[in-house]
């Protein structure tokens, strides 16, 4: 059985994510690690974002959400990548749709953000992309990232998958009312259930980060097993 490393920028295991992706990964074992594993409340407080920081939002082991400045966790992520390489992983998947700098890895390292980027760019064309992101502080970086990646028309709404899951349909309606032709649920925290609720509220296509990434991994590594 192949082993794939899975790194969350929060704390592992991501029991909120695995029910949606493990059925797609038959024949593959996920080895999870978290950039915030073992950190105390005081240490978590010290990595909160300040003005101008690239903001990430993730989940702690106790189910609560956490907001952090990306710059503080990059060395911790590189350390985990190095360890997973040494443990013999076939590849490594980032369980986060944020944008990251280059990390050193001897095995393939997959970023959901990149997969989402090409997926969306391939189908959106001149139409308007609606983006759901967990926190309003992420609006500037989200708009900039999607426009830099070739999407001309971008709308963003904030709804946390960790504390406001029931508000996803309402946020999707706001995006559609503003003119969105397609929606990206731009955080690993958004689930299949949230996507289904979105579809029941608005009749436009939607892309879910966690399953796009899982299907990509399955295509490469599930040894011909039926998806």
Automatic annotation (TrEMBL):
**Spans through the membrane:** none
Query: InterPro entries of this UniProt entry?
Result: Asp/Glu_race (IPR001920), Uncharacterised_AroM (IPR010843)
What does the record give under GO molecular function?
Answer: racemase and epimerase activity, acting on amino acids and derivatives
**What superkingdom does the record give?**
Bacteria
What's one Pfam family here?
AroM
Q: What is this protein called?
A: AroM protein
- Supply the source organism for this entry: Dialister hominis
- Give the organism's phylogenetic lineage: Bacteria, Bacillati, Bacillota, Negativicutes, Veillonellales
